[in-house]
Design goal:
The protein is an alpha/beta fold and about 375 residues long. About 35% of the residues lie in helices and about 15% in strands. The strands form 3 sheets. Strands 5, 6, 7, 8, 9, 10, 11, 12 and 13 form a 9-stranded parallel β-sheet that branches. Strands 1-2 form a two-stranded antiparallel ribbon. Strands 3-4 form a two-stranded antiparallel ribbon. The longest helix is centred in the first third of the chain and has 22 residues.
């Protein structure tokens, strides 16, 4: 009898027997999968507990980095955010505080905080980073970081000239070339932009150069002519401009004062420029006016806030050719002989660096002494 002709109850019995036969050979797939997952989990836990892998299994590689740009071992210890250690065996640096700055005569101890010579007591921690301040003993950053006093003493009765190189720090190779080629008496002004500023400034200072910080100020044709991020603007709340100032000031340390980058409109506004100069006076910093605007209120505001001040006499490389630069340097020499001192400023162009280096070699033979800018701040006529 076939299944088709068998009674329905009999067909169900046969199907049940067939199904029981097949189910006796079925694998427990779900339980097997859960078992494998359990073994994998146990292996992972064992690896974490028993194997020391600080990188967490991430791919890693060791790359040797060689640099021929800066062989200064002290400056090499100073970089953005890189911890360092140093042993200082000499006595703390003794810094004379001149009476002209409102301090008492005598020597004061300023302990050095790092190999670049940044004094811990001359630093204030802010939300923007570290910015300069007057120390607890009354020493100013202008006094602590300047080389002016020793240079004036060496000059004697000779006419003196200060040269400032501006726009450094943006091109690392050009910056290092300027640091290495120029005489230590040349003052170097760094823009608050670019990478590795702390390292470049440390190299400059350990090579004997005095350092200024460039601050971007609003020109008349802003924003068509833009000095850069964090430009201080007219018509803004003083606190907003001071926040920008502090952000710029935190980019590196060890500078004696500030140099304006542009700023003809800003420096002509007492309401806007006044709070900035007041802040410089409260923090013991100097101010060098680049001489580009006759409407600048810097002389009056600096005097009112007891800020060490000078105004540049000549933009030496306005025409960036060897012949023109040498002619401007000759004119600067003539002014120094007439007035006793003069200040020139150049941009960080290769031709300017080359000419200044060549010119400085023969300056002593002409009876003129090269000095850092701080030596003439507060002493140069407008």
């Amino acid at each position: 009898m076939t299944d088709l002709s068998a009674p329905l109850s009999r067909r169900r019995v046969r199907q049940d027997k067939a199904n029981q036969g097949r189910s006796s050979y079925r694998l427990p797939i779900a339980r097997t999968a859960f078992g494998l997952l359990g073994l994998i989990g146990i292996g992972i836990v064992a690896t974490v507990l028993l194997v020391d892998t600080p990188d967490g299994g991430r791919p890693s590689a060791t790359v040797a980095i060689n640099s021929t740009v800066d062989a200064n071992s002290v400056a090499g210890a100073v970089s953005d955010g890189t911890p360092f250690s140093a042993t200082i065996t000499a006595d703390p640096e003794m810094i004379a505080v001149p009476e002209a700055l409102g301090q008492d005569d005598g020597l004061m101890d300023v302990a050095l905080a790092d190999p670049a010579g940044i004094a811990a007591d001359l630093v204030e921690e802010t939300e923007f980073g570290q910015i300069p301040r007057i120390s607890s003993t009354g020493v100013t950053p202008f006094t602590a970081y300047s080389r002016g006093a020793e240079s004036v003493a060496a000059a004697g009765d000779k006419p003196t000239i200060a040269i400032v190189v501006s726009g450094l720090g943006i091109n690392p190779n050009g910056t290092m070339e300027a640091i290495q080629k120029l005489p230590a008496e040349v003052t170097l002004a760094f823009a608050p932009y670019g990478k590795g500023l702390a390292r470049s400034v440390a190299s400059a200072r350990t090579s004997g150069h005095e350092v200024l910080l460039e601050v971007p100020l609003e020109p008349f044709d802003y924003p068509d002519n833009d000095p850069g991020p964090d430009t201080l603007l007219t018509g803004q709340a003083p606190r907003d401009n001071l926040n920008k100032l502090f952000n710029v000031m935190s980019r590196f340390g060890g500078y004696v004062g500030l140099l304006n980058n542009m700023g003809a409109r800003f420096t002509a506004s007492g309401a806007d420029f006044g709070p900035v100069m007041e802040e410089l006076g409260a923090r013991g910093l100097g101010y060098l006016d680049d001489g580009s605007s006759n409407r600048s209120l810097a002389p009056q505001l600096a005097q009112a806030n007891r800020v060490p001040f000078a105004r540049v006499d000549a933009m030496v490389d306005a025409n960036p050719s060897r012949t023109a630069i040498f002619a401007q340097l000759q004119a600067l020499e003539d002014k120094a002989r007439r007035n006793g001192s003069a200040i020139g400023i150049v941009s960080a162009l290769p031709v300017s660096i080359e000419v200044i280096t060549e010119w400085a070699r023969g300056l002593e033979d002409k009876g003129i002494h090269l000095v850092p800018a701080s030596a003439l701040m507060g002493k140069t006529d407008g």
